[in-house]
Amino acid sequence: MEGIAAFRRWGRDQEIYRRGDPVQCWFRLETGVARKSTLLGDGRRRIVDFLFPGDFFGISSRRYREFDVTAVTGNTLVACYPCHRLEALANSHPEVGRRLRELAADSIARLQERILVLGHVTAPAKVSAFLLEMAERSCGDSAAVILPMSRYDIADYLAISVETVSRALTDLRHRKVIRLPSKHEVTIIDLAMLADET
Amino acid sequence: MEGIAAFRRWGRDQEIYRRGDPVQCWFRLETGVARKSTLLGDGRRRIVDFLFPGDFFGISSRRYREFDVTAVTGNTLVACYPCHRLEALANSHPEVGRRLRELAADSIARLQERILVLGHVTAPAKVSAFLLEMAERSCGDSAAVILPMSRYDIADYLAISVETVSRALTDLRHRKVIRLPSKHEVTIIDLAMLADET
DNA sequence: CGTAGTCTTGAGTATCCTCAACGAGGGTGG
DNA sequence: CCACCCTCGTTGAGGATACTCAAGACTACG
Question: In angstroms, rounded to a whole number, what is the distance separating the alpha carbons of residues A11 and B105?
């Protein structure tokens, strides 16, 4: 599979694809972070998924893209797998087909998990669940979490306002559940208490 | 693919599978309606997806089930496709593998759509979006929608309280956007206005 | 026909959103 | 190199929304 990949690099806030583009490739994020989003009728933006290294995205049986995907960080490297070559490969090598199904299943699992987070009632519960998700997915030390995205991104991801995100983080800091060494760094002090919030 | 299916029938509120069960089959709902749900720590229930005839479910690469799936209506008929036989079939018939990937992609599209609905801010917007979704998916006359599930199910699906669901429906009825011939029937009078709510 | 569960409506309260102001940081241009 | 500007992040005040608790009506089912 790696043989048919074309690697492309994007800068901060550049569009990897946008709604309405023809579906030509499946993608795998190699380095950096990206967001999958859409603009709602009233001008609000909804972020459907954050993408981290190793995540596949763009898996679709439609002809055209439903969402926009944008690089969150600079130096976002993406492997692009042309659909028709993937299909050909899957036809000749069943194990590739199996791998593709696995990847789709992983994507399903991630989205279902996401629905559970969105289903939380209170804003503190959403923010705590978000931090736990980031701790798990942004691999590395799970106590020192990097949040590459802005507060606005987090708000659009959790479907709450920026101010509420900020307040929830401040509250967690005051209660010594987390520390905020910088705007984009979170240190989890009390994992159990954070999990209790959800 | 149809050759390897075993058909089973479930009654109202019976479990098709539950969290923790080993993953042995993929399923296709033939008749009736089902819900995919999970119980949260605080005793709340979250419904992740409603399943209608034609929907595939249980697609997973994990070893054990993450959610419960329960029949909503009586006489729910399900086609069960054993995983290992599906894999064998996909290995010998690439077009089956392709079909399975398509189904997974459909499932992804449905879940993403669902995230957008959950992301709506106000309760009336969620309920309106829900009605539109039901009008589209419960095939048949799209103006006369059947809601087989209870108000509690709808509440757990939209992550709002039962009372709020009830109030939103009553409000839409008062404003002549919908009619409610019975508790489980909705007639859409003004589709445009309903879409405006979202 | 009775009962348990479902659905609706009301009242009071907590939560979150909106609007507003301010501080901090980063980038740009003089 | 510094001043400026613009975006991002935080905090506060006020108001709208939805939740909780409660009670009553209706239904479906045994």
Answer: 28
Residues B159, A121: C-beta atoms closer than 8 Å = yes
Nearest to B99 by CA among A107, A91, A85: A91
Provide the shortest C-alpha distance from residue B94 to chain A (in Å). 5
CA of B150 to C1' of C6 (A): 8
* Beta carbons of A33 and A72 less than 8 angstroms apart: yes
The distance (Å) linking the CA of B125 with the C1' of D15 is 20
| Residue–nucleotide distance: B153 CA to D22 C1' (Å) | 22
- pLDDT (tens digit per residue) in A64-80: 999 999 999 988 999 99
Residue B15 CB neighbour total at 10 angstroms: 13
Q: Does A87 touch chain B (CB under 8 A)?
A: yes
**Planar angle of CA A152, B38, B49, nearest 5 degrees:** 70
Q: What is the pLDDT of residues B4-60, one digit of tens each?
A: 999 999 999 999 999 999 999 999 999 999 999 999 878 889 999 999 999 999 989
Neighbours of B73 (CB within 10 A): 16
* Rounded-to-5 percentages of helix, strand, coil across chain B: 40, 30, 30
Three-state secondary structure of A92-114: HCHHHHHHHHHHHHHHHHHHHHH
Is some CB atom of chain B closer than 8 A to the CB atom of A40? Answer: yes
Q: Give Cβ neighbours of residue A172 (< 8 Å, ≥ 6 apart).
A: A124, A127, A128, A131, A178, A194, A197
Q: For residue B81, give the DSSP letter.
A: E
Determine phi and psi for A124, rounding to 5 degrees: -55, -40
Tokens 């920026």 sit at which residue?
A: A162
Distance (Å) of CA A123 to CA A129, A168, B116: 10, 7, 17
